[in-house]
Write a structure and sequence with these properties.
This protein is an alpha/beta fold. It has a single domain (8-184), classed as Rossmann fold, CATH 3.40.50. Helices cover 57% and strands 7% of the residues. The protein contains eleven helices and four strands; from the N terminus they run E-H-H-E-H-H-H-H-E-H-E-H-H-H-H. The protein has helices at 13-16, 19-30, 40-52, 57-70, 80-83, 94-101, 116-121, 129-139, 141-153, 162-171, 175-184; strands at 8-11, 35-37, 105-107, 125-127. Helix 7 links the parallel strand 3 (105-107) and strand 4 (125-127). Helix 3 runs antiparallel to helix 4 and helix 10 runs antiparallel to helix 11. The longest helix has 14 residues, at 57-70.
Amino acid sequence: MIHSVRFKAVLDTNVIYPVVIRDLLFWFAHFDLYTPKWSANIFGEWKEVMLRHGVEEKEAQKRVQKANLAFPDAIVENYLVLVGQLELPDEDDRHVLAAAIKTNAIVTNSLKDFPEEYLDIFGIKAKSADDFLTDIIDLNQEQAIKAFREMVLNRKNPAMDEYEVLESLRRNGLLDTANYLHALL
């Protein structure tokens, strides 16, 4: 069995929200398929997105705390000093790259905001959630299926079966991931 917990990736806000993408990323991390990383800035953005989508303040804060409790080593420290030195198409994404410099990768669905040639300077790779998750499945298909099945079993509000979750993944841009998992079921 190949373990990839040594592989670390900063999760951008746009892969932490929507819920179904975050759930799969978190379950894969729970099953030690990789180590998630994030910053206070990323979680601040996540909280803002939740509030804009009608999540109550107390519930949003609870979700942030729950994620930090589940993965206490995920928070990246001492990255803010780098932000002012970085140049990206969207200046608001500089904190994501700064946090990633402390790790080795970014999982984002805004690849255009992280130009490959600029990231190469820092030895950083950016991947879409779909590509990142299919790579993880490639590394350890058995663990990935276990993680997926556990996610489905713990799914509430609404409860869904495996095929409904796969369809939800497809609707949220994880077409290759859903098809790969489906083929392994």
